Amino acid sequence: MKYLYVLLLMLTNSMVFSQTRYVMVIHGGAGTILKENMTPDQESAFREALTQALQAGYTQLQAGKSSLDAVEAAILVMEDNPLFNAGKGAVFTHEGKNELDAAVMWGPTRAAGAIAGVTTIRNPIKAARAVMEQSEHVMLTGKGAEAFASSKGLEIVDPSYFWTENRWKALERALKQDSLKTQLDHDGNKQSTNPALTNDYKYGTVGAVALDRDGHLAAGTSTGGMTNKQYGRIGDAPIIGAGTYANERVAISCTGWGEFFIRGIAAYDVAAQMEYSNTPVAQAALAVIEKIGSMGGDGGMIALDDRGNMAMPFNTAGMYRGAITESGEIEIAIYK
């Protein structure tokens, strides 16, 4: 494999198997995140954003609110921050649009809600929760999801709200690379490749998992998908069991190359290993990331069990991630 999973296991275990009880874990995307490519100001901004998200979720937990409230609060912070590929910072599709996906799951009852392919809902995570709590469905997409969100009083914005210069430039770079590849692959023996499927244009999902005072778990994930994605593509984030999952024992949120997380049923696989083989959360999560890697995909995940043990394995150069303990101690990490 490209990266050493043994090292990942050591790093993960050093955090998971301590006596520390974690109550919330978050991620802000995985990919080729290298310290040498990050200015001090950029790194500081990401660390501050992750800290704010953790504090928002922790405030809910300290007030006796549910883990679902905490997950929503943390993700809202990241959706409103253009640093992340979710909400305000969403990437652009091949057609120059921002199409957003999100999901939430409530562990005790395994209730779930998701929305996909929306362009006017300011905070997709709120819409996903509304689907779970105020409809008989699990997933709504496109215009139907937007009409539903509007009918429930959620904030609807003009699509221009999601426009950011950095994301637009990323699309322009992807389109240029796509054009060059098409020109080079002229001999009929090579398959033209969408750069969104071959580099870090595919990364950037945000997510949160939390454990509340009642011992209940919840998970949530929100994303703008892939830069230059085409044909109404939907990734793993809004698919229950692929990018998002929670039951009474564990909560998981994933980030990375969605097609592989879907094919590997990644989030549910962690829960299944824990249920059927009594595998510890760190071992189960790492095994799934190893499987994703063996299939040719990459990315990472966060997982939190009902005893407050957490795991954050990934097989990329970095993953924006953070956790907060029961006592309020915050841990933030970016690089491997």
TrEMBL record:
One Gene Ontology molecular-function label: hydrolase activity, acting on carbon-nitrogen (but not peptide) bonds, in linear amides
Key words, A-Z: Autocatalytic cleavage, Hydrolase, Protease
InterPro entries in the cross-refs: Ntn_hydrolases_N, Peptidase_T2
SUPFAM superfamilies: N-terminal nucleophile aminohydrolases (Ntn hydrolases) (SSF56235)
Keyword Transcription: no
Listed Gene3D superfamilies: (Glycosyl)asparaginase (3.60.20.30)
A UniProt-annotated Pfam family: Asparaginase_2
Transmembrane segments: none
Catalytic residues (UniProt): T205 (nucleophile)
Site (Cleavage): residue numbering on this chain: G204, T205
Binding residue positions for substrate: R233, I234, G235, D236, T255, G256, W257, G258
Gene Ontology BP term (one): proteolysis
Keyword Hydrolase part of the UniProt annotation: yes
Protein's name according to its UniProt entry: Isoaspartyl peptidase
Source taxonomy: Bacteria, Pseudomonadati, Bacteroidota, Sphingobacteriia, Sphingobacteriales
